[in-house]
Design a protein that fits this description.
Layout lengths: L5 H8 L27 E6 L3 E2 L15 E4 L9 E2 L4 H4 L10 H9 L5 E2 L3 E4 L6 H18 L4 E5 L2
Parallel strand pairs: 1-5, 1-6, 1-7
Antiparallel strand pairs: 2-4, 3-6
Pfam family, one: GRDB
Organism: Candidatus Methylomirabilis tolerans
Protein name: D-proline reductase
C-alpha cells in the first residue's frame, strides 16, 4: 500500500474552496525519557475514531472534539470504528490503528512497565485546529496527567 498524499488529495477534492491553512509547528516541547520503557506507564492514544459500545459513535462530519476512554481489558473484537476515512472504516485488523492487543502483549512480556487503563481514542480529521488545541487537547492532557503516565504512544489515522 502506497502512502496517501493527503494534502494533495484534499486540494483535488475541494478545488473551489479556499486553501486550508495547515498547522505548522516550528517548535515542540521536548520531554526526555526519565526511565527505561520497561519501567514506564504507557498510555495508548489513537485518532482512529474507535469506540466501545454502548459508547456513542463519533460524529465524523462535524469536527467531533470528544474522546472515548477504552478499558485496557476491552475485547478488540467488540470495538467499532466511526472514522470518516474509508481507509479507517475498511480496517481488517483493528490493532493496526488501535494496537491494544499488542500493548497488552508488551506488558505481559515485561517490555513496558504498564499499559495504562483506559486507552484513549478520538476522531482524526478535525479541521477546527484552534478548538482542538484549546479545548480537546488540554482536556486529554489533563486526563493523562491524572493517570500519571510516563509516556504516550499516539497512532495517527
Amino acid at each position: 500500500m502506497a502512502p496517501v498524499p493527503y494534502i494533495e488529495q484534499i486540494r483535488r477534492l475541494y478545488p473551489n474552496e479556499p486553501p486550508y491553512r495547515w498547522t505548522v509547528n516550528l517548535t515542540s516541547p521536548w520531554a526526555p525519557m526519565l526511565k527505561p520503557v520497561r519501567d514506564c506507564r504507557i498510555a495508548l492514544i489513537s485518532s482512529g475514531g474507535i469506540y466501545h459500545p454502548p459508547q456513542e459513535p463519533f460524529n465524523p462530519v462535524k469536527n467531533d472534539l470528544t474522546f472515548r476512554e477504552i478499558p485496557k481489558t476491552a475485547n478488540v473484537a467488540d470495538l467499532r470504528i466511526s472514522h470518516y476515512s474509508k481507509n479507517a472504516r475498511d480496517v481488517k485488523d483493528l490493532n493496526t490503528i488501535f494496537p491494544l492487543d499488542r500493548f497488552r502483549e508488551l506488558e505481559v512480556q515485561g517490555r513496558i512497565g504498564e499499559l495504562v487503563s483506559p486507552a484513549f481514542t478520538f476522531m482524526g480529521r478535525i479541521f477546527t485546529r484552534t478548538r482542538l488545541q484549546k479545548e480537546m487537547a488540554p482536556h486529554l492532557i489533563g486526563r493523562l496527567r491524572e493517570l500519571q503516565i510516563d509516556a504516550a504512544f499516539l497512532v495517527p489515522v
